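Archive maintenance. Older records in this collection stored only the sequence; we are now back-filling the structure field for every entry so that each record is complete. The fields below show one back-filled record exactly as it appears after the update. Entries are processed alphabetically, and CapA family protein is next in the queue.

ARCHIVE ENTRY
Title: CapA family protein
Organism field: Clostridium cibarium
Length field: 420
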Amino acid sequence: MDKVKSVKIVTILVLVGIASVLLFVNVGKKDVAEFKSAQESNVDETENKVEVKETIKITSLGNILFHEKQLLGAKTRDGYDFNPSFDYIKDTISGSDITIGTLETTLGGDDFSGYPTFNSPDEVLSSLKNVGVNVINYADNHILDDGANGFLRTLSVTKNNNIDMIGVRSNTNEKGYLVKEVSGQKFGVIAYTYETEKENGQRTINSITIPKQIYGLINTFNYDELDAFYSSIASNIEEMKKDGVSFIIVDLHWGDEYSIRENTTQESMAKKLSELGVDIILGSHPHVIEPYSIITNSKGKKTFVVYSQGNFISNQCADERVTQDENVNSDMEDGTIIKFTLCVSDGDVRLKEYNVIPTWVYREPKSDGLLIHRVIPVSEALNDRGKFNIPDSDYNRIQHALNNTEKILAPNGIGPHEFA
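Back-filled structure field:
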C-alpha cells in the first residue's frame, strides 16, 4: 500500500472517529437535556400541586327596595319587567359564586305597593336572579308588611325560584342559617334584623307585632337584650361548624337610618361577632353608605365589617325628599357593591382581597312620563360618558356620588384592596 492510500485511510478513520465522538456527545447531551427537562417538569408539577390556589367570589349588594314609582315604571301589558333596572350593572355583578342582597319587601301576590308597606310583584325575583343574586336576606324591618300570609308566601315563591334565603325559615325544624357549598368548601351565612319596642309584651318588627303563627321564623335581636342575641348567634355558629362550615358571613339589619356614620352599638356588636369567629359582617338598613373597617380580635383573627352599603336600588333620592336635610337625601341615591375574593389553599379558606364599587341610581325618563330606575356603576360612567346613555346634565350628580362615597369611606376608600 502506497503512502497516499495510507494517508487517505488514516484520514477517513480519524474523521469517522471524530464523527462518532460528536454523535455520542450530542446524543448524551440530548439525553441529559431530556432527563433534566423531565425532572424540571416533575418539579414544576409537584410545586404546582402545592401552590395551586382556587378562588371563590362573593358579592354583596346594598338595600333593594321597590317604591311605587318603580312599580309603575316596570309595568307591562302582561305583568312587570324589572330587568332594565340592572342592565348596566349586570356585568359588574356577574361571575360570583355567591351574590347576596337584602330585599326589603314582601311578595304577597296582589295589591302591590311601595312605601310604607312594601308588597312587590314576583317578577322582582326573576330579575334579581337574572343578574346573579342567589342568596336573599329577608331579615329586615319590612318583612311583616303584608302580615303572616305575605311572609309565608314570600318564602314559598322564593324557594320556587331556587333562590336561597337567610334570616328566615318556613318552620322551626329548619336551620336558622344557610350552608352554601362552593367548590367543596362550606360557607355559613346567617342574618338578623333588629326588633322595635315591645307591644303588650309582644316582640315587634317595625312596630308590627310578630304574628304567633310565624313566631320563631325570623332571626331578630333586641338592642336591650344583646346578651340573648350573642347567645343565639354563638349557638348557630357552633352548629355551622358541626356542619363543616369553614367561613362565616353575618348579615345584620341595624344602625340608624340616614346616618353616614356607624354608632357605638354597631361597633361593639361587630367586635363581639369578630370574637365569635365571624369572617365577614354585612350591614344594611340605614339607606345611606357607612364606613367599613377590618377588625382584629384577641386571637389575631381579622374580620371585614361594612356597617352599611347604602341602597342598591330604590326611588329614594334628592328629588324625593322625605326630610329637610338635603345632604342626607342625596346620599340615598348612592350605594356600594363589595366583591370579595377568597383563596382556597390546602383546605384553608381565607379572604384574599376585596373591591368596593360605588353605584348610583339613575331615574331615566320614559316617553310616557314614567321612569326606569337604573343602577349605574359610577366609575365606568365617568370614564366613558357615552356608555350608559346618560344626559350630560346628570354627570355632575354622578360625580357628586363618587365624591360623597369617597369621603364617607375615607381613609379606606373605594376600589380593590388586599385583605391584610
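Update note: Residues 109 and 327 are 36 Å apart (CA to CA). Confidence is low (pLDDT under 50) at residues 1-52.
Entry marked complete.
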